[in-house]
Amino acid sequence: MKVLITGASGMLGRALVPCLEARGHKVRGLSRDELDITDYAQVANTIARAKPDVVLHPAAYTKVDQAESEPELAYLINGYGTENVAVACGHIDVPMLYVSTDYVFDGEQTRPYQPWDETRPLSIYGKSKKSGEEAVRNHLRKFYIVRTSWLYGPHGKNFVETILKMATERDVLRVVADQFGSPTCTLTLSETIADLIETQRWGTYHATDGGITTWYEFARAIVKDHKVQVVPIDTTEFPRPATRPRYSGLDKTTLIHTIGREMVPWQEALDNYLNLRLQTQPA
Q1: Which pTM value belongs to this model?
Q2: What domains are there in the chain, each with its CATH number?
Q3: How far apart are CA 61 and CA 204, in angstroms?
C-alpha cells in the first residue's frame, strides 16, 4: 500500500515508518515541519497529491500536564488538526487511522474498558484527544481509531527513559502505585497497526501490550538490573496538574479477533526494548 504518515518525526511515527517499509509498503512520512496539520489547505493539498491508500495520523499534542495551562493549543492540534486530516481524507475517499489514548476514560471502572464504553476524560489532554475521535467519526466512514496507553520507545521522551536516567542519579525512586494501565512499546504497537490496516475492518480498537500493571511495578521492571530502591507511593503524594485515570486497562478482544493474534506481554516488550537499547548504545 501507499501509506502517508503524519508526525513521522515523533516517537510513534519513527517506529511506524521502518515497520511498514519492512513489510513492503511505500511509505511517506511527514514531520511537523513538512506538514502542519492545523493548516487545512496544506493538509488537503498534501493528501490529494500523495493519493495514498491509507493515512496514519499519530501526530499529536502529548504534553499531558502542560495542556492544563494551554488548552487552546491542545485542542488546536488534537481536535482541529485531526479534523483537517479527516476532512481531507473524506474528500478523496481515503481511509484514516487515528491514534488515541486511554486518557479518554475516567478510570472509575475496575474491569478493562471496551472500545464502546462511554468516554469521560478527566484532563484537557484526554478531552482534546476525544475531540479528535469525534472528528474522525463525524467525517469518515472508513476509519480506524486506535486507543493505546503508557507509550514508550526509541527516539522520544517517555517513562522508561525518565526512570533509567533517575536510576543513575538517585538511590531511591518514589513511584505511584495506585494507577493501573498497560505499558506499550512503539515497536510492538507499530506491528499491531501494520496488521490492522491490512484487514480493512474499520472501527475503534484498543491496542496495548498484554497485561495490566502499575507505574510502580513498571518502574521496578525497568530498573531490575540497577542498584536502586523503588518505593510505592499514592497519587496524592505526587500531585500533577492533569488528573490521570486511576484504572485504564483496555480490553483488546476486538483487536485480537480482527488481526488474529494475541498481544505481546508488556514484560516481554520491555525486555526487548531494554536489550535493543544496550545494543545501540555507543561503546
Answers
A1: 0.94
A2: 2-153+186-209+248-264 (3.40.50.720)
A3: 20
Strand partners, 255: none
In this prediction, residue 283 carries a pLDDT of 52
List Cβ neighbours of 12 (8 Å cut-off, separation of 6 or more).
58, 99, 151, 153, 186, 189, 190
pLDDT-above-70 percentage for the chain: 99
Residue of 61, 98, 113, 125 with catalytic role: 125
Q: For residue 85, what pLDDT band results from cuts at 50, 70 and 90?
A: very high
Question: Quick check: is 80 catalytic?
Answer: no
Report d(CA 102, CA 129) in Å as an integer: 10
Q: In the beta sheet, which residues pair with residue 184?
A: 151
CA distances from 105 to 19, 58, 122, 177, 249 (A): 29, 19, 7, 19, 10
Interval 29-66: pLDDT, tens? 999 999 999 999 999 999 999 999 999 999 999 999 99
Mean of pLDDT over the chain: 95
Going through the chain in order, the beta strands assigned E by DSSP cover: 2-5, 26-29, 54-57, 96-101, 143-148, 151-152, 172-176, 180-181, 184-185, 203-206, 213-214, 229-233
Cβ contacts of residue 238 below 8 Å, gap of 6+? 174, 176
Which residue bears the cell 545501540? Answer: 280
3-state helix, strand, coil in the chain (%, to 5): 40, 20, 40
